[in-house]
């Protein structure tokens, strides 16, 4: 009970001091507010990027095996996956199609390219695939239809557009249906518009039969990757091993990679764990600066209130009382600034989530409150001790 009463009196005293100089109180807390805001937002953005990549892979289905050239990691394809190494062709597609327990085999020609309509031109992605991509990725149309196996055989100049690229090229995405778009020298009729998926590559892609790319777009008739869809998760490792065995007949081991989606996600999680630590360290610099600001202000406050300290000591206040008084003010300033920073960060995250999957987590909240409190204690000790060590007689005579 005694401790509760003492804490209550300390908080009331601190509140009274803050009310006397509201501007200085706000400016003192501002450094901590900015620091906490920086740390929480950096963590949220890091989680957002991680969520975005995970969503991209999940859109491909859980039981997916990806055959890619080289190491399989780069920045030129969907979700940052890559090229460099083997150049896959239709023979490779036919060979891997003989693997038992396969449901889908999708050759993928992929590149960033300018896509034009009669009135606009936008940078998007061209995906040359077969009809099996649509069930593999669970693609559904807003309007129109998906082209099929016959179109692949006829090298049909038809396209299914992602929702975003259709919206960019026409007044409404639905207006693209039946219109003609151009990709370099290739003219394509739009037969369907895909529902918005949230995956940047799919939403900004023109998906066409891979055979239609043969010619000026893809003279070598090669593929960036081959997706293998497996009906059951338990069959994934067997399919992966069989694909490696088949491809080793044509390529060296370091010229291609056969990767499960779970392996890629595991690597992504490890990378983002390190990135988040770096982001926290960068944001913590702002917190440190805010802490130094609080220490400077509290030192100035001790000087201004020297006579007050002397009077309190003369009336019986102990060194401990003075120490706790100034330390409480420092901690309250830090926690107040931390809470404001946390609320601002939460508001920004709610707004940004409309366009990008940023997220707050328990770590960010605990870090914000815990670190701001710790900074208040650490940087408040020095000025508080200075106030407590003042001689009562000298403090009363101070002018």
UniProtKB/TrEMBL annotation:
Entry membrane topology: Multi-pass membrane protein
MacB-like periplasmic core domain segment(s): 25-242
Location in the cell: Cell membrane
Keywords: Cell membrane, Membrane, Transmembrane, Transmembrane helix
Main localization, broad class: membrane
TM segment ranges: 27-49, 271-302, 323-356, 362-384
Highest taxon listed in the record's lineage: Bacteria
Pfam families, sorted: FtsX (PF02687), MacB_PCD (PF12704)
Any GO CC annotation of this UniProt entry: plasma membrane
Gene Ontology terms, MF aspect: transmembrane transporter activity
Every ABC3 transporter permease C-terminal domain range: 281-392
InterPro entries: ABC3_permease_C (IPR003838), MacB_PCD (IPR025857), Macrolide_Exporter_MacB (IPR050250)
PANTHER family listed in its UniProt record: ABC TRANSPORTER PERMEASE YTRF, MEMBRANE COMPONENT OF TRANSPORTER-RELATED
Family of this protein: Belongs to the ABC-4 integral membrane protein family.
Protein name from the UniProt record: ABC transporter, permease protein
């Amino acid at each position: 009970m005694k401790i509760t009463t003492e804490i209550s009196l300390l908080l009331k005293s601190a509140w009274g001091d803050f009310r006397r100089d509201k501007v200085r109180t706000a400016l003192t807390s501002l450094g901590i507010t900015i620091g906490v805001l920086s740390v929480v937002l950096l963590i949220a953005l890091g989680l957002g990027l991680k969520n975005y990549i995970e969503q991209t892979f999940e859109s491909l289905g859980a039981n997916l095996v990806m055959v890619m050239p080289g190491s399989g990691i780069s920045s030129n394809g969907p979700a940052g996956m890559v090229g460099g190494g083997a150049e896959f062709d239709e023979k490779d597609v036919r060979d891997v199609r003989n693997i038992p327990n396969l449901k889908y085999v999708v050759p993928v020609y992929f590149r960033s390219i300018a896509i034009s309509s009669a009135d606009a031109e936008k940078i998007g992605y061209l995906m040359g695939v077969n009809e099996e991509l649509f069930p593999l990725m669970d693609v559904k149309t807003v309007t129109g239809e998906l082209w099929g196996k016959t179109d692949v055989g006829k090298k049909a100049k038809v396209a299914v557009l992602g929702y975003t690229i259709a919206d960019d090229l026409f007044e409404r995405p639905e207006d693209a249906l039946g219109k003609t778009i151009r990709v370099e020298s290739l003219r394509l009729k739009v037969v369907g518009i895909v529902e918005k998926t949230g995956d940047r590559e799919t939403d900004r892609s023109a998906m066409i039969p891979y055979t239609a790319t043969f010619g000026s777009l893809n003279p070598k008739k090669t593929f960036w990757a081959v997706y293998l869809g497996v009906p059951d998760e338990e069959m994934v490792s067997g399919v992966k091993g069989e694909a490696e065995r088949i491809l080793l007949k044509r390529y060296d081991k370091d010229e291609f990679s056969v990767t499960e989606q779970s392996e890629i996600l595991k690597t992504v999680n490890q990378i983002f764990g390190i990135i988040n630590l770096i982001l926290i360290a960068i944001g913590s610099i702002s917190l440190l600066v805010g802490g130094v600001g609080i220490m400077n202000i509290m030192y100035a406050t001790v000087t201004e209130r020297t006579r007050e300290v002397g009077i309190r000591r003369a009336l019986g206040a102990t060194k401990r009382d003075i120490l706790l008084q100034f330390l409480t003010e420092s901690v309250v300033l830090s926690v107040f600034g931390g809470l404001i920073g946390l609320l601002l960060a939460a508001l920004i995250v709610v707004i940004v989530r409309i366009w990008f999957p940023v997220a707050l987590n328990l770590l960010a909240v605990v870090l914000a409150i815990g670190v701001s409190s710790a900074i208040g204690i650490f940087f408040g000790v020095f000025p508080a001790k200075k106030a407590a060590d003042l001689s009562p007689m000298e403090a009363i005579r101070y002018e």
